[in-house]
Fold:
Amino acid sequence: MNMKEMIATRHSCRAYKDEAVDEKTIESLKHFLAEAKPLFPELEVRYEFLGLDDMMPIANYHAPHYIVVYAKKHPLAKVNAGFLFQQFDLYAQSLGLGVCWLGITGPEEDLRKDFFATHPDYEYVISLSFGYQEGDGGPAHFHGRKALEEISDSLDERLEPARLAPSAKNGQPWYFLHKEDGYDVYKDDNPAVTRWQEVDIGIALAHLYVYHPATFEAFTREEPKELEKRVYITSIRF
Ligand SMILES: Cc1cc2nc3c(=O)[nH]c(=O)nc-3n(C[C@H](O)[C@H](O)[C@H](O)COP(=O)(O)O)c2cc1C
Structure:
């Protein structure tokens, strides 16, 4: 299956074989990431491939591989990281691997300190686990999605890939306000739900990009409409 087809079939993997992914596949993942499209090319992102022993203890499941993501501090840094690494999620799953975004763990404290010693203007963003899936990949938590009318004022079927996007605790904190020249994208203004809402927005936009790679672009609107309980993030056309 290609990345576009993975949008409808992907799921988070929480059960992995205790087996390292072969070197050729790891190289292919690294090559893919080096070529992946950033949402905002001027924003800097760094990532490291780590193993289980490099991560803070994880409560209930283990994977052989992790990617930890850092970004240079910027209001849109997490959106950009979500956009980049959702492409990784789809690509890795298209190769048959299991993948899961991980808000609730991260690299060991010593590794973070080492990183920040050389990158003081960066912040830690998020991690992802990956590996060969065990069985069906474990329990599919919170797999339902909001209806299109809950995430946009327009019943535009072209938003379907964004509707299907994964998000922290399945919060789906995105809203697409229709405009003549595209959509203004908002996030729910409810930080109590999760701290990863900007990452979630980037993930949803990555799905639209993967569906419309030739036409997708992001731009900033000077005076976006103010929406109650929502925060403007960016604008897109595709
Ligand atoms: C930013 C982010 C953080 C997440 N953190 C975790 C996590 O710490 N543990 C976990 O089991 N799942 C985590 N998930 C996976 C979500 O629970 C999952 O994507 C969502 O419930 C939708 O299910 P699906 O990915 O199977 O479609 C995270 C997802 C995102 C996007």
User: Anything to note?
Assistant: The first helix runs from residue 3 to 9. The pocket of flavin mononucleotide is lined by residues 11-12, 14, 100-104, 126, 140-143, 166-170, 196, 199-200, 203 (CB under 6 Å). The radius of gyration is 17 Å. Residues 148-237 form a domain with the NADH Oxidase fold (CATH 3.40.109.30).
